[in-house]
Amino acid sequence: MPSSLQPASITHVSLGDRSYDIHVTSGAAGDFAERVTRAVPDLTHAVIVSDEAVLSDWAAPLAKDIADRGIRVSSLSIPSGESSKSIAQFDRLMQWMLSENCDRRSVLIAVGGGVIGDLAGFAAASFTRGIRFVQVPTTLLAMVDSSVGGKTGINLPGAKNMVGAFWQPSLVLADTDVLGTLPERSFLSGLAEVVKYGVIDDAPFFGWLEANATKLVARDQDALRHAISASCQSKASVVGADERETSGRRAILNYGHTFAHAIEATAGYGTLLHGEAVSIGMQMAARLAIALKLCDAGLLDRQTRLLEACQLPVTLASADVDAMLPVMMKDKKVAHGKLRFVLPTKIGHVKLVDEVDESLVRDAIHNCA
Amino acid sequence: MPSSLQPASITHVSLGDRSYDIHVTSGAAGDFAERVTRAVPDLTHAVIVSDEAVLSDWAAPLAKDIADRGIRVSSLSIPSGESSKSIAQFDRLMQWMLSENCDRRSVLIAVGGGVIGDLAGFAAASFTRGIRFVQVPTTLLAMVDSSVGGKTGINLPGAKNMVGAFWQPSLVLADTDVLGTLPERSFLSGLAEVVKYGVIDDAPFFGWLEANATKLVARDQDALRHAISASCQSKASVVGADERETSGRRAILNYGHTFAHAIEATAGYGTLLHGEAVSIGMQMAARLAIALKLCDAGLLDRQTRLLEACQLPVTLASADVDAMLPVMMKDKKVAHGKLRFVLPTKIGHVKLVDEVDESLVRDAIHNCA
Ligand SMILES: NC(=O)c1ccc[n+]([C@@H]2O[C@H](COP(=O)([O-])OP(=O)(O)OC[C@H]3O[C@@H](n4cnc5c(N)ncnc54)[C@H](O)[C@@H]3O)[C@@H](O)[C@H]2O)c1
Ligand SMILES: NC(=O)c1ccc[n+]([C@@H]2O[C@H](COP(=O)([O-])OP(=O)(O)OC[C@H]3O[C@@H](n4cnc5c(N)ncnc54)[C@H](O)[C@@H]3O)[C@@H](O)[C@H]2O)c1
Ligand SMILES: [Zn+2]
Ligand SMILES: [Zn+2]
């Protein structure tokens, strides 16, 4: 890559003819147009779909930079928030794309957090049965999780992510500068998924996180780039081994999530952010692993200290076991009526455990209260 | 296959791990439940989506046969007609599937013509990012064309098939008995696509059609089974070479269609059925090929006689050249502002021709008036 572009840490996601790169940079948003035109051949029409919260700071400048290259650009902003992952917004987006004369060669660029990436990704998968797309994640969660791996989709009333497609992007551009405007709680919440990769897949990274948590919380750019790249590498390797969630490997990404979904569903909507629930959920999972003698208490100690250093909650005084259990039973990870969990055996390793006794699950929740 | 099943002519669609069989039978609808359970492993929940016009004759008996095997069945009927290929019906179908507790292991069975196959196929592609599905085509067009090849989708206001997915079925079950209730015009219209396969891909089949057109028009079961199987074989081989319409090979299926779409758009909605427009469109294409010295006049003669024997229109007195041309220019098959056509060189062979002079196109349309 010529020197005109700032250096980027590049993670390659290896999926045959659906392979792509994730560029992690700092202060290089001015390069995004150039990076897009290099990675996406024959770009003649860019369709920029952005979260209204990042429209003026990030989507509008990108639109201008692309237009300055003589490429036709259409832009639409979407209201912020989970409720935009709806069939109504999907319909609106499709009709707008038609009115903008999009065709099979148009390229959709999603600028936003997981909400915009999921909605716009499904739009890209479906418009004329699929057009190319680029992810420009603007939340930490989107950078380390939702923009990588090709899961796209929208919600139905009462059920998340029920409608969607597996559709891989052609490029992911994550710049740490973009996180500058992200509210503190949202930022810290994203760190929970970062810690998750350390526990499930990458012991050296877990050690690095222990040494650098303070820098991360202070949003140190070098530390952030490393954390985002390492997270993307873990996710990319898991996704490369199980692109469409058929072999079971992809399930390890759900560490802490069976508990977290039950916490989110019962704690009252909006009480906890997703990453906060994941943080507590990983604590419950670690306790369950100890009870099952899968790992020693030292793992829980290290995980607790790291999550606390990331200013994430590690207990939930209000946890309502009786409300949580039925939710967990309905979770997709239940096999034939028996609870199934992703549980750590040591830092960097997890296994899938079926047929866990309900009483042990209760204890794990109680002990996090 | 054990003798308990009536014999079927089976066409294999070869698409790697997305391969599947098309069974063409007569009087074997009573076997459909058995065929589905054999082809689709671990069937525990069947979701039957049918055109209301075939609900009582074909969908309800199939639902009963499957339920009699101890398999849970959910059934929904969809209003007949192109307007059901909408986001509104898609939304309704998704919410209904959720309310029926569908999950990733559910199998969707589409019973109907191209409208139901396209809508239900897109629903199958999208529900939890993709569930298995089976096509039970009930129109001739669906048996020889829309149920084979994995194109699914819905319309946007003013634009057909703009939203969808490539999603292959696990099995296609076409029984000629089901055509018994199909109105005459719809049946004959489907024959236009059958003739198309002869011209573009299969000269011996074209000869067979010339010898058997009378039997086909009389809906002779043996003749119909052969015609449907041969058509599916042609389509399967084209689709196998170009599953996602990227290499250009799949474009040959559009023989006659550039003209046909312009006819349909300008003749007034509902004046002509799709196959009738394709019949006239193939005549225009053959005339254009002659003018370009790609083939001799004998091809047009044979094609004309065969289409007439199938009781299909071969001229259009009201053809409005000035209205048709702008529509053709907007067609997806226009390359860089120049008209692109699929044109015959001899029976069984076509080629893609770019940069055709507008005056020759005008003549071809005029000469079919
Ligand atoms: N596709 C996947 O694999 C995957 C994985 C995990 C989560 N998800 C989905 O991701 C979604 C959550 O993503 P999220 O946490 O990014 O939420 P989000 O997209 O709703 O963003 C959170 C909030 O931050 C605002 N925001 C975004 N970027 C900003 C910035 N740079 N500065 C200031 N404000 C900004 C948004 O307007 C929003 O209010 C959920 O819908 C979840 O289902 C998808
Ligand atoms: N997916 C593809 O590759 C592909 C290819 C070609 C066409 N198509 C689509 O297919 C659709 C047209 O399909 P179609 O021609 O089957 O139309 P259709 O599905 O609308 O069926 C035509 C009519 O026949 C009725 N009908 C269906 N089966 C019947 C039966 N056995 N007896 C009596 N009535 C019956 C229907 O209710 C309807 O009124 C269009 O939307 C077109 O875009 C898709
Ligand atoms: Zn998560
Ligand atoms: Zn057609």
TrEMBL record, chains A, B:
Transmembrane segments: none annotated. It catalyses: 7-phospho-2-dehydro-3-deoxy-D-arabino-heptonate = 3-dehydroquinate + phosphate. It is an enzyme of class 4 (lyase). Its EC number is 4.2.3.4. Pathway: Metabolic intermediate biosynthesis; chorismate biosynthesis; chorismate from D-erythrose 4-phosphate and phosphoenolpyruvate: step 2/7. Residues 76-187 form the 3-dehydroquinate synthase N-terminal domain. Binds 1 divalent metal cation per subunit. Can use either Co(2+) or Zn(2+). Residues 190-334 form the 3-dehydroquinate synthase C-terminal domain. HAMAP family: DHQ_synthase (MF_00110). Catalyzes the conversion of 3-deoxy-D-arabino-heptulosonate 7-phosphate (DAHP) to dehydroquinate (DHQ). This is 3-dehydroquinate synthase.
